[in-house]
Model the fold of this input.
Amino acid sequence: MNATTVNVMFAVASAALTFACGDGGSRSSQKQDTTRAAAFAVSSQPLGPIPADDSLARPKSLRQIGVPIALSDSVVPKDNPQTPEKIALGEKLFFDGRLSANGTVACASCQQPQLAFTDGRQVAVGIDNRVGQRNSPTVLNALYNQMQFWDGRAATLEQQAGLPIVNPVEMGQPNLDSAVARIAAIPEYRATFIRVFARQPNPTDLVRAIASYERSQVSFDSPFDRYMAGDSSAISASAKRGWVLFRTRGRCNLCHAFADTTTGPARFTDDTFHNIGVLIVRHNVVPLARQAEQAIAKGDTIAIDQAAILTPMSALGRFLITRADSDIASFKTPDLRNVMVTAPYFHDGSAATLWDVMDHYNKGAGLRDPYLSTEIQPLALQERDIDDFVALMALTSPSYRELGAKELARQRQLSRTSRPQRDSARAFGPKPVQSKPPSR
Ligand code: HEC
Done:
């Protein structure tokens, strides 16, 4: 990226600020500032210390009920085989703030093992408490994603790992070489890189080590996995009703579909992108699309990353990468494993609870939007059905069992007083007529 692009991106970032201020809905407070470096939205909830590299962070065994063994092997790239030393190096790097420009932010700041490798925030907070536009997705089972990030802008975990390091609101390094220089100054790291990769620290091996560590985060063995493996008492009667609804009236399996149908639903995603109407109403996507076409060269990964994290163009989702109108506001179908412990939900963290997610689907949010997926329709689900769906989300691995129980109680309590997405008239009404996309 050249200097001009950088300036353009800063200008767009300030535009994002003004936009976000008028938008109201964000949990983060926005500060206007006179200095150029501070032309970013700043969170009122500061980033805490880098979380501990504790037992929840350790590499996981493949010996868990439900693990797709063949798939687990096939997702490891030929040029980056898993070895225990490399995974250990990646783990160390994952928790090391020295990868960030001022030493305060590590990968683990947003991917906290104690919170199922998320951060519990609506949107991620990085260096100098700057806020981005996207909710931190979990690293658990990310090895199976065919593409990384909510919009799939990285094809591999290796590519993914490099982008937050150089994003100005995440880890803030000017480039990967600066991060490598910090690491290479430490004799122990130098020795480990030479042992693992037979050469001095460099950007390629840095992201390879981090990706290898991430591929060790396999998380199955949930009550649902045990149910699918034949233990009919592993989940509640309510969850069993939810499982039937998931594949029938809920239409969830149309997208949260299963890669491996012969041995059971290993994953809850079709690995593609859909516009399901998440806050689409807040954004006027047509001018945004025009802006993206003018401001960002196709395939400019760094510029796309910055647009996705720093600007209102974030709402365009997959369109930022493909420029296909059909991808406007489309996001990747997330795997639903451990979803009970990864609130808040959706790419922008706009759903606080699983009840809010269900209310969203029940009313067919965004149904008049011309770019909405045609699979979305009002579902006419009763409250009891919604409770059954939430019970089905017993997809929590044993290490998060306690957190899952606490989180379920917290969300249930919150849902008794706050249901901002509920709209029964629409949920039980007819499917409205969808407008045609405007010509652009
Ligand atoms: C048309 C495809 C489609 C259908 C049908 C669908 N989903 Fe989704 N789901 C998605 C996509 C895409 C996202 C991410 C959207 C976003 O963030 O903008 C998502 C997000 C979610 C999330 C939030 C996960 C997270 O980590 O933030 C949950 C929970 C979920 N869906 C459950 C369901 C359930 C339950 C049903 C059935 C009632 C369902 N989905 C039907 C595509 C679909």
